[in-house]
Amino acid sequence: MQHYGFPPKFIAIIQQLYENSTCRVIHKGKLSDPFAVRTGVRQGCLFSPTIFLIDIAWIMRRTTSNSNTGVQWTFARQLEDLDFVDNISLLSHKQQQAQTKLTRLAEEAAMTGLTINIKKTEVMRVNTKKEAPLQLHGECITESDRFT
């Protein structure tokens, strides 16, 4: 939040909302002992969606800054990614650019405690030859011919 110019007092208030958070789970009709919650946003909290989107915006800005490897959007601009909440599409013309961007996204996300779910991650090639598969943490990304 500080990267976006939020006042320190506001940031401190949000941090206090998350300090010493605990949770309990009901399993088979029994309530668990409390356990600490160290990551994520509070379920049902009005600030949670906004906090999450601020985090995603920061990650994407850092992932694509100075990249200039997207698709031509206007004469002077390139479109680097398409995002909707936690669904992200990285756009690139070349295999190596896509791999670099994916690796950078994973690194930036990890800095905030987020991870990319490789089981929900796919590559879609359009008007290009098939090359080596993209990889994330040593695992090959599934290829698809449809975007959903």
UniProtKB/TrEMBL annotation:
Residue ranges of every copy of the Reverse transcriptase domain listed in the record: 1-141
InterPro entries, A to Z: RT_dom
A Pfam family assignment: RVT_1
Protein name per its UniProtKB record: Reverse transcriptase domain-containing protein
Organism: Pomacea canaliculata (Golden apple snail)
